[in-house]
Amino acid sequence: MSLLQCLTVATALILLQTLSLTVSSTVLSRADRITRLPGQPRVGFQQYSGYVNIDDKKQRALFYYLAEAETKPISKPLVLWLNGGPGCSSLGVGAFSENGPFRPKGSILVKNQHSWNQEANMLYLETPVGVGFSYATESSSYEGVNDKITAKDNLVFLQKWFLKFPQYLNRSLFITGESYAGHYVPQLAQLMIQYNKKHNLFNLKGIAIGNPVMEFSTDFNSRAEYFWSHGLISDLTYKMFTSYCNYSRYVSEYYRGTVSSMCTKVMSQVSIETSRFVDKYDVTLDVCIPSVLSQSKVVNPQPQQMGETVDVCVEDETVNYLNRRDVQKALHARLVGTRKWAVCSNVLDYEVLDVEVPTINIVGSLVKARVPVLVYSGDQDSVIPLTGSRTLVKRLAEELGLRTTGPYRVWFAGQQVGGWTQVYGNILAFATVRGAAHEVPFSQPARALVLFKAFLGGRPLPDEF
């Protein structure tokens, strides 16, 4: 997008902010309204989905799905959700498998009793182009995509999305996501703050990232200790995994096509001991996790010769549902350049080495800008273990001179311990979610909703039943 185009969008948005908007705010978005999804139970809230063209010249368009709040949507904040990968769908994973209002079950949709749209207007974005229903008419647009391009595209998406939904212009805005969204979310928030210096468009109130990739070596190398402490590897293999070839070295070599014989030996032994019958995204789970939860190409590379794959259930409800023609029609979605909707893109060529670029420093800049940050971790995830995230948050707090607001303590969901939490300076928080996997809202939906509600309200997590 050129500078002139950016100014045009900004001017239009400023005009919308200053106008009395006597015309109903639904006019611009009416074409995207979902009448009813196939098999959907009756609900009282509105849904919208469709495209925002982010590049007229190259015809690149991002697909979104908006589930407005179940009650009083006008008074509820707007929350943008981004899934990771890079290259995996926020619609298929976030909306239809984690915290959206429905989950597919056979030919119908069932109500998610712990949907996050109980507390907010939930906006799910399939990003970057080439993911899910998002597309470009030129296949070259799928090549060389990186964090910088993705962040800029996401910013342009929001600018233009507000033209469709001007009623959300001054609404409190939160950005949330998980896994590789540890890159997406802070990078987008940083651009929003920079943009606000001239145009004051985004009413950003906070970010929350779950089991996020924020610092390559710390996050990845915490895996060895997690495996060992949970009995998944032997003492000898733990020593090899920490002394001769740690996980960050292996991933770095793997994506450069130069895996050393030592790393091959170490990783083979790790693979044998951890077993392909244990899901790395939830080490305690004794049943398969649907492929919609295998949302990571970068954080858990799976070389064929290692014999290690994420267990996949025979039936994948979400994939089946979103590939139905009647569903795609109801969503105003279309497939361009591919015959089948997929959870994670098979056409996107992402710059995977961007994973080595830390974002914890960007998180620090957000805190300095007085943007509240929550980092939360499902404690059964060995892919991005809680120990790495906790270490990074504590280190950041020390660098910023933030004191602990209260002691490290348990928090409650219902009459059970929901996890543990630590808050720094009333603006930076870390929390674990007990019994949760890599995808926290999927594995512990009730506890995730308690966490989410507290985050939106800027309140401490419950310290009693």
From TrEMBL:
Native source organism of the sequence: Capsella rubella
Gene Ontology biological-process entries: proteolysis
Annotated EC: 3.4.16.-
Protein name: Carboxypeptidase
Physiological role: Probable carboxypeptidase.
GO MF assignments: serine-type carboxypeptidase activity
Superkingdom to which the source organism belongs: Eukaryota
Gene3D superfamilies: 3.40.50.11320, 6.10.250.940, alpha/beta hydrolase
Keyword terms, alphabetized: Carboxypeptidase, Disulfide bond, Glycoprotein, Hydrolase, Protease, Secreted, Signal
Enzyme class name: hydrolase
Stored PROSITE patterns: CARBOXYPEPT_SER_SER
Subcellular location: Secreted
